[in-house]
From TrEMBL:
SUPFAM superfamilies: Gamma-glutamyl cyclotransferase-like. It catalyses: glutathione = L-cysteinylglycine + 5-oxo-L-proline. This is Gamma-glutamylcyclotransferase. Keywords: Lyase. It is an enzyme of class 4 (lyase). It comes from Rangifer tarandus platyrhynchus. Its EC number is 4.3.2.7.
Length: 219
């Protein structure tokens, strides 16, 4: 059964419609929500960052990656957001201001859209420390319409694929471990059964596997 985070006082949000945004829009300030590699490697300048969650979505390793964590012959598996009324996805929101806005959007357009196949969508972000003060944020979401979309598969099959793939940004296993490590840092209220099941599946395939800094050093 799906476990909900402890922040029960925050309002439940329905998945919003897509809100494309380009660097040409250049608002004075913008929040960008990361729930995959952006949580540990944003690689753009920002003014503030907050750990928190969005409701109405679940994180899934359903997007193929032929650049960052895989290749054309062996696509890796990276995360996207699945609309789910009971879902809750933890991540990090970054605030960009002024000139940071256009620079961040220009960079992310290449990293997430051109190379990753992601579209933009507006989401409601609830900071961990102040869930009663939600923020509107931009998220990059891979939909079934993009050519890299792989869709659902058993967690064991996803784990096997992750163990076999590597791209220009590193091994697919590193991606999995760093995301799992981030979730542990968020505390017991942060739950992701899909992610945990894939980590467990990797553990059964690698008897000595342990999601620690030593394991990360191996990849």
């Amino acid at each position: 059964m799906k476990q909900e985070p402890a922040a029960q006082n925050s309002p439940r949000a329905s998945p919003p419609s897509s809100q494309p945004l380009s660097e040409d829009d250049d608002p004075q300030a913008l929040w960008i929500f990361g729930y995959g590699s952006l949580v540990w490697r944003p690689d753009f300048a920002y003014s503030d960052s907050r750990v928190g969650f969005v409701r109405g979505y679940s994180r899934r390793f359903w997007q193929g990656d032929t650049f960052h964590r895989g290749s054309d012959k062996m696509p890796g598996r990276v995360v996207t957001l699945l609309e789910d009324r009971e879902g809750c996805t933890w991540g990090v929101a970054y605030q960009v201001q002024g000139e940071q806005v256009s620079e961040a959007l220009k960079y992310l357009n290449v990293r997430e859209a051109v190379l990753g196949g992601y579209d933009t969508k507006e989401v409601t972000f609830y900071p961990q420390d102040t869930p009663d003060q939600p923020l509107k944020a931009l998220a990059y979401v891979a939909t079934p319409q993009n050519p890299g979309y792989l869709g659902p598969a058993p967690e064991e099959a996803i784990a096997t694929q992750i163990l076999a793939c590597r791209g220009f940004s590193g091994h697919n296993l590193e991606y999995l471990l760093r995301l799992a490590d981030f979730m542990q840092l968020c505390g017991p209220q942060a739950q992701d059964e899909h992610l945990a099941a894939i980590v467990d599946a990797v553990g059964t395939m690698l008897p000595c596997f342990c999601p620690t800094e030593q394991a990360l050093a191996l990849v």
